[in-house]
Amino acid sequence: MNVSQLFVRCLENEGVRFIFGVPGEENLDLLDALADSTQIRFVTTRHEQGAAFMANVYGRLSTYPGVCLATLGPGATNLVTGVADAHLDRAPVVAITGQAALTRVFKESHQYLDVLRLFAPITKWNARVEVPETVPEIVRKAFRLARLEKPGATHIELPEDVAAMPVAAEPMPVRRTTYPAARPESIARAADVLRAARRPVILAGNGVIRRRAAPALREFAHRLRVPVATTFMGKGVIDARDPLALPALGLRGAASTAPRFDDADLVIAVGYDLVEWPPAVWNGRQQKTILHIDSSAAEVDRHYLPAAEVVGEIGDNLIALANEMGEWTVCEEEPATRNTLLAELQRYSTDDAFPVKPQRIVHDLRVALGDDDLLISDVGVHKLWLATRYPAALPNTIVIANGLASMGITVPGAVAAKLVHPERKVVAVCGDGGFLMTAQELETAKRLGVAIVVVVLVDQRYGVIALNQQRRFGRTFGVAFTNPDFAAYAAAFGLPGFAVQAASDFLPTLRRALALDEPALIAVPIDSSTLPELPTEAPVQQV
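Below the sequence we write its predicted structure tokens.
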């Protein structure tokens, strides 16, 4: 057995089912070992960035590390954006790169870069395999750290000469980690803080999804009758139709645009990560009391100073705190605010303006998709509309990149989503700018036969930047571009392509594409002239 064969056995031992990547000369031995695996499927991508995004979304939806593979030098540098996105979105990812032989990594050499130093700021941990017998420990540590809270990316570098060395070793046992319940005094302190509140609100983040604590959160909220807002990455931990559900939050404007946050005296932050929505936005005057409930201690920020911290398994601690509170509930006299956003979608359901209004797009997507179907959003004006308006019912049914917030995640992300959940419908929504950054992965989707639908929203500009330029300077610069015929572009890959010519065409076209047993693309001209603001009118009929 050589090092590459042992490496693959260790990956199989970790339960790896897919590796996304691009072959290279320096990972030939590893690829040859993968060819003999009956458990791991190697997914050849058309760009290393696509491989990293696939691993990213795979890790986020499965909660187990996605794996991406590249060679040295340019292959490794092409992974950086997707790995960095996983790092800030807390998605478990293990990146593997080839490297030059040990005989030349200490000197100037063809294609050699210090990849360990390159990846250090965007990973939780990374290491080079230099001694064959260390492979089991290095692989086990990479997967363990990638998954431990807060999850993120790790990196293993395998030099080409080490990859071919003989070795006698075995994979290490895989033992899962559970998080303890908080100490009773922490629960008691949190209960005291909660009892003193008059206008509490829950801010639920992506950590609730990662720790599978959504059922406990819903029970906690209903027992205490506390309204729940989620971050963009926490959407679905409470059903948007729930009477206690508030709009998702994440815009960087004033907190006064967030119902119940402007006047809340206590924010119960559950599984909330500061990269999801800066506390300076919603606690700018540092006047709010904060209760921190998470699997890890609070990050240091002068706008985020918890009066109490409950650290441990989120779901268990929410139920323990609810039990400690006894019969205490919030006296809710205001009408629920969640209906205002649902009502807005209803009003735009028959809006025939063309280019299509974002609200009409969101409405039609919600009508076409079931509660457990998957929506992957790219970054742009449409992301803000989907993040604030799309009414998610279940956790991890809408994937929004909001840490690094990189463009280009949707097409490769949708491929990974379909591999994780082949029984569900998967729609990728992207702008024309983000789409062409990773559009080559349509060929990967075609080759794999994954039935995803890519919705390209066409406005021929980088819309968010254009709007911000117009607001600040009264003009735009450097944001306009032209596009190919997107339907013809899809056809060039052998895929069905549809060009929407009227607002009323989108929903039937989407349904037609979703019924196909192959990838498809829909191009939709969109009105990107406005950004979303939260409505203030009284609630009316919901969708």
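The chain has a mean pLDDT of 92.
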